[in-house]
Amino acid sequence: MKAPIKTKPLGPIPAGYGALGGELAIGGRMASDLVEAAGKTPLFVYSRAHLDRRVSELRAALPPRIGVNYAVKANPHPAVIAHMEPLVDGFDIASSGELAMTQAAGIDPVRVSFAGPGKRDDELEMAIAAGATLNCESEGEARRSIAIGQRIGKQPRIAIRVNPDFELKGSGMKMGGGAKPFGVDAERVPALAQYILAQGADWRGLHIFTGSQALSADAIIEAQGNVLKLAAKLADEIGAPLPKLNMGGGLGIPYFPNDSALDLAAVGRALHGYVADLPSALAETQLCLELGRYLVGEAGVYLCRVIDRKVSHGTTYLVTDGGLHHQLAASGNFGTVVRRNYPVAIASHFDAEADDVVNVVGCLCTPLDRLADQALLPAARVGDIVAVFCAGAYGASASPAAFLGHGPAAEMLV
Ligand SMILES: *Cc1c(COP(=O)(O)O)cnc(C)c1O
After folding, report:
1. Which helix (H) or strand (E) covers residue 360, if one does?
2. What percent of the chain is modeled with pLDDT above 90?
3. Atom of ligand 1 nearest to the CA of 213
4. How are the residues of the chain apportioned to helix, strand and coil, as percentages rounded to the nearest 5?
5. What is the DSSP letter of 137?
6. Between the CA of residue 1 and those of 280, 314, 376, what are the distances in Å?
7. Using one digit for the tens of pLDDT, what is the confidence trace for 50-104?
8. Does residue 92 have its Cβ closer than 6 Å to ligand 1?
């Protein structure tokens, strides 16, 4: 008798994906149809229906007072940015390249705010000339922005990114609390704001980002309460109202086995409570959240093709034409400590019984290139299509596409 082969669980497949003619369907189209339309694998498919639904869920849960910004770095595909244009209130960017992408999508720069450390003078100039808001990350950056504004004869729109003394608990990537390259330490913000006001810049308020990829509503609610308290205290110390407060985001999506979806309704209820009871310093302040992966992560699926099926020492490998050069995060090499399986499926046999245990790997010549370990999946042959879910954020643009020369994946919005 053969010893049973050990399996490792897969992450949860996001809601809204089903089978059509036995295959995975995205946006009502079969996987094989999408691959044919793209003319190649690997392929990222982004679903309009998922993007629309996620924004509607947010609008229904959040108080109308709180706007939704899209953090472009999560997925800067031109069709995705253009699709988000009428859906969200603002766009958060982190480079002049992303500014150009929003401009190409016809987005008014007045809706754009530019955060990120190490903004070059030419980037500051481009943003000031366009009328985007600069979320200044340091005193030096604020001084350079004001000098550039004077040189080109345009009043810069300036907010301050605050480095708060607290962070979003359980956050995948911590970006606040203690020494950081991001933002201005909270105790130095009032003096800098007064300087910005005295220089005649267009004062836009504060940006407080406390972390990313949190699945705990309690942690998010606590961080948002702390953000509002800190913003009110700083507004009092500055002695001028805050036109705007970007409250950060950090709403996460489930990627791995045992991750459960964020309780958005709970976050919404808490925000209704906060908004009903805002400190007077924030009474006139425009509020927004900035979200990347929560808006786009579950809307994307990465499709790649099985090129080889082989056995080594009793382990079956599905070798695909995809890999970490497009899906670094799914390989476990983008900010995770322990490698766990993303949600993966055999797109060609989406509703078939799972009775085969395989390791799904990419085509790169490195042992790091793994897409699923010891996965229980329907049997797949050479030519079949594999789907990796949760590929809508930090996929194509956050993976080393030049590594090993296979080139970029195709991308398509359906
Ligand atoms: C990366 C980033 C975001 C988006 O984070 P998500 O986890 O994708 O929501 C938002 N704001 C700032 C300042 C960021 O650096």
Report:
1. strand 356-361
2. 94
3. 7
4. 35, 25, 40
5. -
6. 74, 14, 20
7. 999 999 999 999 999 999 999 999 999 999 999 999 999 999 999 999 999 999 9
8. yes
Pocket probe mutation, ligand 1, options 133, 207, 212, max atoms within 8 Å of Cβ: 212
**pTM tops 0.85:** yes
- SS (HEC) of 277-315: CCCHHHCCCEEEEEECHHHHHHHEEEEEEEEEEEEECCE
Closest C-alpha among 251, 331, 266 to residue 70? 251
348 touches 337 (CB < 8 A): no
Residue 335: pLDDT band (50, 70, 90) is confident
Q: Residue 2's pLDDT is what?
A: 58
Which of 124, 247, 229, 235 lies closest to 189, judged by CA?
Answer: 235
Pocket test for ligand 1, best of 92, 112, 180, 289 (most atoms within 8 A of CB): 92
Cβ-contact 358, 8 below 8 angstroms: no
Handedness of CA 23, 29, 32, 38 (dihedral sign): negative
- Residue 185 burial (10 A CB sphere; 0-12, 13-18, 19+): middle
- Rounded mean pLDDT of 181-202? 97
CA of 221 to the centre of ligand 1 (A): 17
| Token reading at 143 | 């001084």
pLDDT at 269: 98
In angstroms, the CA 154 to CA 143 distance is 14
**Residue 51 structure tokens:** 């993007």
Return all residues near 340 (Cβ < 8 A) that are at least 6 apart.
8, 11, 255, 256, 257, 332
Give which of 229, 375, 258 is closest to 315, Cα–Cα.
Answer: 375
Residues 386 and 347: beta-carbon distance below 8 Å: yes
> What's the one-letter identity of residue 36?
E
pLDDT at site 170? 78
How many angstroms separate the alpha carbon of residue 134 from the centre of ligand 1? 16
Phi, psi of 33 (to 5 degrees): -65, -40
Polymer length in residues for the chain: 414
Q: Can you list the alpha helix ranges (DSSP code H) found in 300-357?
A: 328-331
